[in-house]
Fold this sequence. Notes:
The protein is α+β, with helices and mostly antiparallel strands. It has 14 helices and 16 strands.
Amino acid sequence: MLTQAPKGTQDVLPSSSYRWQSIEAVMRRVCAMAGYREIRTPMFEHTELFQRGVGDSTDVVQKEMYTFNDKGNRSITLKPEGTAGAARAFIEAHLFADPLPCKMYYVSCPAFRYEKPQSGRLRQFHQNGIEVFGAADASVDAEIIALAMDVLRGCGIGDLRLAINSIGCPHCRALYLEKLRAYLQPKIGGLCETCRERFERNPLRILDCKIDAPALTDAPAMLDSLCDDCRGHFEKLKGYLDALGISYEIDPRIVRGLDYYTKTVFEIITDTENGPLTVCGGGRYDGLVEELGGPATCGIGFGMGVERMIMVQDARGVAPKAPALYDAFVCTMGDEARLEGMKLVRELREAGVKADLDHAARSLKAQFKYAGKMDAKFVLTLAGNELEKGVVRVKDMDAGTECEIARADAASYIKNVIKDGAAQ
Ligand code: ATP
Ligand code: MG
């Protein structure tokens, strides 16, 4: 127990954290280019926020939340997703009084759901996400989809399926749900236990059920019941996506798990050996800010599972190469040389050269071997002989060549050869 991480959690070890950093860098770059700024909200919120925001009838709130009472007897929940916290912050900080739209993003944001752990499904996972408040036109729906695609493509994951749908507004959805219930009513006895519960409180979700949905292919589609406003919005979205050259499929089965969605919903899906895997899901939530007590403000966003992105990169063989740990490794012999080596390493680091030296008092031969294992491009030797002559012996590990450089010039010499190498 003591040395075992809790079920459904994962460590990111030093040898693989560059994978996360590279995805985070792509996300940050894509967002910054489009006028998004980062938001960081607390890891936990008042439970009520998710009950109201995500919705009492959803699977997430009913079954998956990590909820506990703190020592002050407040009900606290570890955030299961990023949107409700962002909307709470938007209201609390009166961001609605600033010029709108308010465009924000988050990177590798932890989310917690008590789910059955399996491939691509963790209890603590991480999302990259975007939220936009105060932009009603479907152009922003198309923008965030384009940005999600750009992030995924920037991470080497092109060639994904984009599925879009509209789940309408509360007005047209109410009429649709009547039609859906009428369709489902005679079938109710044959539905799975979860769907029988969903029939009253969240029948839309039945269309998304892995067990029942395949038998419900002739269910009425929300798209056929949209009001003029929602239909117009959906048509505009399709026009914008066409204009941007983003291909999509319309999938009336995409209903999304969270209650706050209105109009546009979408998923970006990849096909894996174990079936389709959703890497990114999002949609419009025009009622959320008002539901949480803020002024009526529309919104839209997406969440992208970082662990799933890494899985897809691995499956496709497009993982980035690990960056070299060191450009230069300094080998020393004797106390005096180690002292000089410490100074040299500091100079190298200040010059922007990734450098280190032996901290384990190993033999020169063992230090060279270690430098080789660490893939250092240059090995710099400082022993009695070099100290006396005031030089450093520099070995280019790729070329196998050696030269002596004046001790005082060593850091700038390495800096320049690395820079030239990078420029080639
Ligand atoms: P699913 O249908 O796979 O359960 P969801 O609809 O619950 O997904 P969202 O709430 O939309 O997922 O979350 C957005 C993204 O976060 C998902 O597309 C997925 O990439 C990722 N995600 C969701 N739940 C998990 C989880 N338990 N473990 C890992 N990643 C997850
Ligand atoms: Mg889920």
